[in-house]
Amino acid sequence: MSGTDFAAEPGWLDDDEMAAWLPFVRLLYLLPQALDRQLREEVGISHVWYSMLAMLSTSPDRTLSMGELARLSMSSPSRLTHAIDTMEKRGWVVRRPCLTDKRSQYATLTDEGYAVLEAIAPSHVTQVRRLVFDHLDREQVDQLRRIGLSLTEGLE
Fold it and tell me: Which of 1, 22, 51, 80 is most buried, by CB atoms within 10 Å?
């Protein structure tokens, strides 16, 4: 073997860590499901699609490379391609090739896509507030921000 000691004991979670870990794991499953459910019931799209529309809406000229959009929306390239294909058929986005790199493409949010986002954003924000922020005080919101930044720093 390469010097790795497979017989070494793992650093087991203590009681306090386990008491924090289990609700966190439950949150990781339940929150995306609840956000998806609301968006699917109201407008027939997933939370991932919503995030794609939102990312495009805040980008210069409402345009991002497909690679950057995949990264920002945490989607695989194939999942992104499928989503953009469908959104393009609905008239929400247009795709165009990169002039300097034939392998790359850009996605641009259309006016119609922006109107869809404007229509669904209020209920989505209400749902996010109801599920998350209504349960936290200002100090906890700041803690959530800092914890989120700390945990994602090592993952991206």
Answer: 80
